[in-house]
Amino acid sequence: MIAHLFLMGAAGVQMGTIFAVSEESPAHSRFKDRFIKARAREAFATPQYDSSLPIIPVRALKNKGTEEFGKLQLNLLQRLENQEITQLEAQYIVEEFWLGALQRAVEQGDIEKGSLMAGQSVGLVKKIKNTKNIINDLLEEAEAEFSHIQQLLK
Questions:
Q1: pLDDT tens, 69-80?
Q2: Which residue range forms the structural domain that includes residue 104?
Q3: Would strands 43-45 and 59-61 be described as parallel, antiparallel, or unpaired?
Q4: What is the per-residue DSSP string for 124-150?
Q5: Has residue 150 been placed in a domain?
Q6: Mean pLDDT of the chain
Q7: How far apart are the C-alpha atoms of 44 and 62, rounded to whole Å?
Q8: Structurally, how many domains does the chain consist of?
């Protein structure tokens, strides 16, 4: 996995998904189980419906919470148009929504309405491992890929 990123010229990687499922992670067991069962295609970028309400897109697994977020955005856009709230107030409401949803998912195991932020690599996470094994696996993959590259360059 990581070795292929080197070949594509990546300067870094985000690996939160695999560590969120590690043995050492304090995440709820339902949260971890949902990630293990997920497929890569389930991780989608949350949409921004209109530029008048800037949203920082995140990748997440679709659930009732992401549907509620869409409805929230539409409601906030209407309130902005009616000048009931400011853009900054609307953005704070969005931040509060996601912060609470993430906390519910990770701490309480609410996988229906909680935020299940995960990259497409979620499809590669197949079991709970300890952090030492995760890092050892990454190092082994990188070493194997470097050896392969060396052979190609000979």
A1: 999 999 999 999
A2: 15-136
A3: antiparallel
A4: G--S---HHHHHHHHHHHHHHHHHHHH
A5: no
A6: 89
A7: 7
A8: 1
* 153 located within any domain: no
Nearest one of 46, 49, 93 to 66, comparing CA atoms: 46
Structure tokens at 73: 């955005």
3 inside domain: no
pLDDT digits (tens, 9 = 90+) for 100-124: 899 999 999 999 999 999 988 899 8
pTM: 0.79
Task: Identify the CATH number of the domain in which residue 20 sits.
Answer: 3.20.20.70
128 and 18 Cβ atoms separated by less than 8 Å: no
Residue 143 lies in a domain: no
pLDDT-wise least confident of 13-17, 73-77, 124-128? 13-17
Q: For residue 20, which of 40, 34, 39, 10 has the smallest C-alpha distance?
A: 34
